[in-house]
Amino acid sequence: MNRVVITGMGCISAQGHTAQACWAAMKAGTSGIGPLVNIPTERLKVAIGAEVRNYDPEQYFDRKQSSLYDRVSQFAMVAAREAIAQAAISFDAAEGMRTAAILGSGIGGQTTIDEGYQRLYGDNVPRVHPLTIPRLMINAPASHLSIEYGITGPSFVVASACASANHAMAIAFDMVRRGQVDVAITGGTEAPMTLGVIKSWEALRVMSPDTCRPFTKDRRGMVLGEGAGIFVLETLDHARKRGVPIIAEIAGTGMSSDAKDIVQPSEDGAVRAMQLALDDARLSPDGIDYVNAHGTGTPANDVTETRAIRRIFGARADAIPVSSSKSMHGHALGAAGALELIAVLGALTDGIVPPTANFTTPDPECDLDYVPNTARRHTVCAALSNSFAFGGHNCVLALKRFE
């Protein structure tokens, strides 16, 4: 079995257009949540979100690409280009065959769908854009990534709601670990900030009208976010042969299914996923220094996750920093785990745990150390990153500082 390391990372989110900018905002506790500016809000009850602002596609893509790329694919390509540039890797025919492109996305090209339906049903235009299907298909981001870089190994998109990115990265990790490929470009991308999507989330009554404050007594729900996080994974031997710096090591993953309820989280499912990740990584609970929580800010998730963490870590749970970066970049659905991996990698490399922003009154049922409002210096040698999704899909990544 190969050791699997991360040699490149890229990110675009409400906190910035590069991985460095996003991590700097996380460390500062700067929230990207605010009033929606990219869509009309007259028909919305919840008019806030974590949008990618000041984004101009023409800075990244020519006219032909722009006509093919939904916003979800654009975000994936922006982040992928950054990650691949940092990893200093190129893909000739031989390298391309030994590389995978595996991304996560929960809902795909919603901007294209929303615009098409507006034309068809709202404006009574009898035709939609001729490239509607290639733009909206959920596998489009991985396809465009493969085409741009000549990646001819396995290429696909994983869709498991809010666990999509972690599932994609777990599959990519396993392919590299088993030697099926030498390199994997992986992560998650999402662009859900459309009228139709936000109205649909409003109907579930899980949306906060003001901001996201996970684990607090007065939390009022989640806030939608968007963006992408993309990473270059490769075998340790492959990275050493190329002589490139190593960011961190993925040590293991854990996946489980609740098989109980389509929207309510399960404490047992979360516990199984965390324990499986620890087992796969050959880490004990005592070896974990930080947990990046799923931490949506909903009443049900935060209590359930707190209880699950206590079951895994026992009395030591009180000594482990647990934070939710969704308080700053929002809940980016299928990209959530990828944005959160930026936070975990920052904690491992810089020794700084990002805060849970907007923290107000502690909740007696959420009684862990949530690093309220201000980042903290803390040595992190190993960490868990949790993703728990609607549908009962759970996926946890275990990462280590590279030694």
Please give the alpha-carbon distance between the first and last residues: 18 Å
The total domain count is 2
CATH architecture of the largest domain: 3-Layer(aba) Sandwich
Question: How much strand content do the residues show?
Answer: 15-25%
- Average pLDDT taken over every residue: 97
- Poorly predicted ranges: none
Q: Within the largest sheet, what's the order of strands?
A: 5-4-6-7-1-8-14-13-9-10
Topology-level CATH name of the largest domain: Peroxisomal Thiolase, Chain A, domain 1
Structural class from helices and strands? Answer: alpha/beta
Q: CATH homologous superfamily name of the largest domain?
A: Thiolase/Chalcone synthase
Helix content: 25-40%
CATH class of the largest domain: Alpha Beta
- Major sheet size, sense and barrel closure: 10 strands, mixed
Q: Please, how many helices?
A: 14
Q: Rounded to an integer, what's the Rg over CA atoms?
A: 20 Å
Number of strand segments: 14
Shape: globular
Give a written overview of the molecule.
The protein contains 14 helices and 14 strands. It has 403 residues and is of the alpha/beta class. The protein has a ten-stranded mixed sheet, with helices on both faces. Helix 3 (71-87) packs across helix 7 (140-149) and helix 11 packs across helix 12 (299-313). It starts with a strand and ends with a strand. The mean pLDDT is 97.
List the topology elements.
Layout: E1 4-13, H1 19-28, E2 34-35, E3 48-49, H2 63-68, H3 71-87, H4 93-97, E4 99-104, H5 110-122, H6 132-136, H7 140-149, E5 155-158, H8 164-178, E6 183-190, H9 195-204, E7 227-235, H10 236-242, E8 248-257, H11 267-281, E9 290-292, H12 299-313, E10 322-323, H13 326-329, H14 336-350, E11 352-353, E12 376-377, E13 382-389, E14 393-400
Parallel strand pairs: 4-5, 4-6, 9-10, 9-13
Antiparallel strand pairs: 1-7, 1-8, 2-3, 6-7, 8-14, 11-12, 13-14
